[in-house]
Design a protein that fits this description.
- The chain has 478 residues and is an alpha/beta fold.
- The chain folds into two domains: 174 residues, Alpha-Beta Complex (Aspartate Aminotransferase, domain 1), CATH 3.90.1150.10; 251 residues, Type I PLP-dependent aspartate aminotransferase-like (Major domain) (Aspartate Aminotransferase, domain 2), CATH 3.40.640.
- It has 16 helices and 16 strands.
- Helix 1 packs antiparallel against helix 14, helix 4 crosses helix 10 and helix 8 crosses helix 9.
- 50% of the residues are buried.
Length: 478
Amino acid sequence: MRNSHPGQPGADDTVQTMGMQYRRRSWAEPYKIKMVEPIRMTTRAQREKALAEAGYNTFLLRSDDVYIDLLTDSGTSAMSDWQWAGMMLGDEAYAGSKNFYHLEEVVRKHYTHKHVIPTHQGRGAEHLLSQIMIQAGDVVPGNMYFTTTRFHQEHAGAKFIDVIIDEAHDPSVIHPFKGNVDLAKLERVLEAHRGRVPYVCLAATVNMAGGQPVSMACARAVKELCGKYRVPVMSDATRAVENAWFIKQREEGYADTPVADILREFMSYTDGATMSGKKDPLVNIGGWLSVNDDAIAEKARNLVVVFEGLHTYGGMAGRDMEAMARGIVESVQDAHIRARIGQVEYLGELLQTWGVPIVQPVGGHAVYLDARRFYPGMAQTRFPAQTLAAELYLDAGVRAMERGIVSAGRNTETGDHFYPKLELVRLTIPRRVYTQAHIDVVAESVQAVFANPQRPAGLEMVYEPECLRFFQARFERL
């Protein structure tokens, strides 16, 4: 019988049968499967060959060689029948597509911002925001960096400054909102760089910290503090629905509040947002930049035409905008987000039961393995997280992602690596794609790699691209 998920229907129900009471522990996803995609299991020898050809970088593996793909939840989720039906209603007019106006209406309702500028995906929105708001010499405080976000900020001439709470950098610390901003750190930055802070970047949830949420109280306090310095708050809202679920579960006063209402309140404490529609909104491509400021919106509409497409499609087909509008509506339903995060929690709790070191508490979209504790004697310059991701693939064909020194990149001033405190491997769960049986296979593979007494020596980087090296870098075994 399946283990229950926290917050899942039936998890705490007491059932009376044949004069006996027992606690019902089973649960089921709030959907049924209409279509399947065959996947194949490879042999160890086949995986050895595929991984060597990919330079021990899981990003360079062919998807045909992957059994269970947990590389990312970006664009890998399954769409519903209602979304697929919406695809048939795509208005592919170059200008003024009716699907854009539907998307605009839904974003305004659930994310609160006045203006919506569509983009081909989230980094398109990050590029627009950075080009419009940043000048050379600026600083952008944020609750931990994200790879593409920081790149666009630095490419526009700014310096990123981390203002997340200290607990976020320790994977073993239990804290309900490890994504929170340290208000004292933030105020020091705002005071020291008066006039040079174009905006504060508030991510919810925080990917690089392990999918950790931000509390409503923190979002409210950040908005109040930034108001004092006349600095706008721009959110990375990619997984804000997941963040809303954690507020519902962990923050006093929200237990009986629908996720959709929590999301609206949270976003009301921001002045704009970048969004990758490939995460929470349940589509395979698309995104947007949303803002309240009329002048910023006008600049964005001008610039989007240069880099993305007309301001009423922004690089997306009409059918994709319709699917995203409908996906947003589905994403804020409590039954959906309960099951989505419950599946992640199931994997995390299973690994913890077996003593596997992970980031605690379990985040919203992924379970993060602590590679430092997998390989405690391995120097960070031997890329322990990259090594662990390779070993997981070799064991059972499970593809995961490095989130450590490789993802952190290099200091543009010194040329040396950034040395993050967290050296993690991300097991990212796509939405509505895998069954609990798949999750069990993943957990067993992780446990087998952790228990393996033969420890790898690490990897050497033999090719490093100029930008965002984790996507295309190549390695060799030491």
